[in-house]
């Protein structure tokens, strides 16, 4: 069982990262290198979070074994005895043999750092480039990242000069390595506290508000109004870009040297625009370089980049609009069924996807009503209380983890109590829940934030390559300081506990931060206290109010702009609902008509075919006899029936003239 736990978690985390990437990325349309790089970045970060509790339990066992097998005379003060010499140490079920964890952490850490500081920024520029060749894209990526890499060299040079000027240090490779790690962790910790302060408040509050179905419905109406504006803007932007593509396609003929670039741009356009441009092509004309002015390859590369961005944005808004409609219809159904006397959940629209028969058997309308209208709100409330309790514990521990006598950090108290009895199952579960909650608070904020349209993680395969790579960069930069912060909260880091004990394998890879005392004794200890101020600001929605004042509409219950957008979104949802109802009514009429007259039409068609066969055989022997009246009679019957079926399609007339009462609408028809 020594390596089974490690192997199981390695495989499990890989499929977890693959599942999340499949939800946000598009394996069919996005470049394979983008998928592989993002998957590797997510996988390594999730792997660190899942493997670190095993490192903690293994370290505690090694400390016990060292304390039992050594006496104070033999230890020479190198390690502190943590247990009596006669106490027996029990090997944990997930024990990892010596020598494996240091190699494992070294490979994982430096691979993630190579991804986040070198490879992923380069691939971001490569993915956004509009070049038509690999060489052109690489050249553009190198030019865009020249300032980026120059900033790294400047920061590293500043740290190097500080160590060189200080006479207490001798420049060695280990110290230079520690300086680089300290610089990366300092930047990551700065961003980590900002995201953590938001997630510690927003995650419990979002689950508490999830129990308020009326609140969720109003917020959905608000999102619908904003998304419709973005959707209209994306459609208008796509039309403008396609008009430019059409002009370029008409000006550059088939034998022009840049025609291959134009064909590459046309392949990225939607299908309907490709067909429309293909009908207007006059490729029989030769180009005349003296008479016309043609765009350069650089301008075509810029247009290619704009086409990729506009098409991706248009597709994303279309999919998000359909998802938001389903969510709004679902919340409206819940609001209607809450006052149902029959206690059976009734849907306004039937699901378009076929449901599993097993789910239909157990998840009956009655069970669905009790779950959706009665149990689910209470489940969200209980979960919100549990998450809020965890958040309070984290905030308290972040402010007191530097105190060792007495130990005020609650996470350190829990781990030390379990360490006395060597309850490894409890130690691993406590460590896993702690670091998992911290990771959820940080990573969920990464998935929620949106920087205009440049960075946006959209589910249902709608995230572009740039945003996927940027998320991989953030994960790789946030995970190492997150783990160091966790080890500090549990006093497993010797820098915090001030004990000369055996460190964890992860801490030994990071090196001793004593090389930079102002970071180890100052920034790492006191900066996490800022999380209290950030939690207070998030609780009172100060960031939301500031964005609202700057003109970025945010959902606020006491704002007049929010009320106007809610009313607008409600009207949009009502129109879409009536449109879908008319579509379903038309489909039901056609289905009933086919069920009623389908057999008669089949018999009519068979008789028509039989008559045509008789007429064709009769015409071979009597070619001069007129047979047009039989054919016209049968053909007229078939045409009349087809026209009658087409008339059954409901006409889409003005929505304002439609009565919402289904009884009155049926009587009117």
Structure notes:
Strands 1-2 form a two-stranded antiparallel sheet. It has 24 helices and two strands. It has a domain at 1-68 and 90-200 and 356-537. The longest helix has 62 residues, at 560-621. α1 (4-24) packs antiparallel against α2 and α8 (213-251) runs antiparallel to α11. It has helices spanning 4-24, 32-69, 72-75, 100-128, 134-144, 146-165, 173-210, 213-251, 259-268, 271-279, 297-337, 357-362, 365-400, 410-421, 424-448, 465-489, 494-497, 505-510, 517-526, 531-539, 542-549, 560-621, 628-647, 662-668, and strands at residues 450-451, 455-456. Residues 576-669 are annotated as: Disordered. It is found in: Membrane. Residues 582-617, 635-644 have a biased composition (Basic and acidic residues). Pfam families: LMBR1.
Distance between the termini: 73 Å
> Residue-averaged pLDDT, rounded?
81
Strand order of the largest sheet: 1-2
> Unreliable stretches, pLDDT < 50, 5 or more residues?
71-86, 618-669
Share of residues in helices: over 70%
How do the helices and strands follow one another from N- to C-terminus? HHHHHHHHHHHHHHHEEHHHHHHHHH
Rg, Å, rounded: 34 Å
The backbone outline, from C-alpha atoms, is globular
Instruction: Kindly name the structural category.
Output: mainly alpha
Largest sheet: 2 strands, antiparallel
Oligomer: single chain
Query: Total helix count?
Result: 24
**Strand tally:** 2
Beta-strand share of residues: under 5%
Protein name: LMBD2 protein
Pfam family, one: LMBR1
Membrane topology: Multi-pass membrane protein
Coiled coil: 224-251
């Amino acid at each position: 069982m020594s390596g089974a736990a490690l192997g199981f978690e390695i495989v499990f985390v890989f499929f977890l990262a693959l599942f999340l990437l499949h939800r946000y990325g598009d394996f069919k349309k996005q470049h394979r290198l983008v998928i592989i790089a993002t998957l590797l970045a997510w996988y390594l970060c999730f792997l660190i979070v899942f493997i670190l509790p095993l490192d903690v339990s293994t370290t505690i066992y090694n400390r016990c074994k060292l304390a039992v097998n050594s006496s104070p005379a033999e230890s020479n003060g190198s390690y502190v005895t943590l247990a009596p010499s006669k106490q027996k140490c029990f090997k944990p079920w997930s024990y990892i043999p010596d020598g494996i964890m240091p190699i494992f952490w070294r490979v994982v850490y430096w691979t993630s750092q190579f991804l986040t500081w070198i490879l992923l920024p380069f691939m971001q520029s490569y993915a956004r480039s509009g070049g038509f060749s690999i060489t052109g894209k690489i050249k553009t990526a190198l030019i865009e990242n020249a300032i980026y890499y120059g900033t790294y060299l400047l920061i590293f040079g500043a740290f190097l000069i500080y160590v060189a000027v200080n006479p207490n240090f001798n420049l060695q490779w280990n110290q230079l390595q520690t300086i680089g790690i300290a610089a990366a962790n300092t930047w990551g910790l700065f961003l980590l506290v900002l995201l953590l302060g938001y997630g510690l408040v927003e995650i419990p509050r979002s689950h508490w508000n999830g129990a308020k179905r009326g609140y969720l419905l109003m917020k959905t109406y608000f999102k619908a109004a904003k998304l419709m504006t973005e959707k209209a803007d994306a459609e208008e932007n796509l039309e403008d870009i396609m008009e430019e593509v059409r002009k370029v396609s008409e000006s550059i003929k088939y034998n022009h040297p840049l025609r291959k670039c134009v064909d590459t741009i046309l392949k990225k356009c939607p299908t309907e625009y490709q067909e429309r441009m293909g009908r207007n092509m006059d490729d029989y004309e030769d180009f005349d370089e003296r008479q016309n002015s043609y765009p350069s390859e650089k301008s075509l590369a810029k247009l290619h980049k704009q086409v990729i961005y506009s098409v991706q944005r248009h597709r994303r808004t279309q999919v998000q609009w359909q998802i938001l409609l389903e969510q709004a219809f679902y919340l409206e159904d819940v609001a209607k069924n809450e006052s149902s006397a029959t206690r059976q959940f009734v849907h306004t629209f039937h699901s378009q996807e076929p449901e599993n028969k097993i789910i239909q058997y157990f998840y009956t309308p009655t069970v669905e009503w009790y779950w959706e209208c009665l149990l689910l709100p209470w489940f969200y409330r209980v979960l919100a209380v549990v998450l809020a309790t965890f958040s309070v514990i984290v905030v308290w521990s972040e402010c007191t983890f530097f105190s060792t006598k007495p130990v005020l950090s609650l996470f350190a108290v829990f781990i030390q109590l379990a360490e006395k009895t060597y309850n490894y199952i409890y130690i691993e579960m406590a460590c896993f829940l702690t670091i998992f909650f911290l990771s959820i608070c940080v990573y969920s904020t990464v998935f929620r934030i949106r920087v205009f349209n440049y960075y946006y993680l959209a589910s249902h395969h709608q995230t572009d390559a740039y945003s996927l790579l940027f998320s991989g960069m953030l994960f790789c930069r946030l995970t190492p300081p997150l783990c160091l912060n966790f080890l500090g909260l549990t006093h497993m880091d010797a820098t915090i506990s001030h004990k000369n004990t055996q460190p964890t394998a992860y801490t030994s890879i990071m090196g001793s931060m004593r090389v930079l005392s102002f970071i180890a004794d100052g920034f790492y200890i006191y900066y996490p206290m800022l999380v209290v101020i950030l939690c207070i600001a998030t609780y009172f929605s100060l960031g939301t109010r500031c964005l609202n004042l700057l003109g970025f509409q945010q959902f606020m219950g006491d704002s007049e702009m929010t009320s106007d957008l809610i009313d607008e979104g409600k009207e949009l949802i009502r129109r879409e609902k009536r449109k879908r109802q008319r579509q379903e009514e038309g489909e039901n009429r056609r289905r009933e008509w086919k069920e009623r007259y389908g057999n008669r039409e089949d018999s009519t068609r068979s008789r028509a075919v039989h008559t045509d066969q008789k007429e064709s055989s009769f015409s071979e022997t009597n070619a001069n006899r007129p047979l047009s009246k039989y054919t016209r009679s049968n053909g007229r019957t078939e045409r009349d029936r087809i026209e009658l079926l087409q008339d059954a399609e409901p006409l889409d007339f003005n929505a304002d003239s439609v009565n919402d009462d289904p009884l009155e609408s049926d009587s009117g028809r």
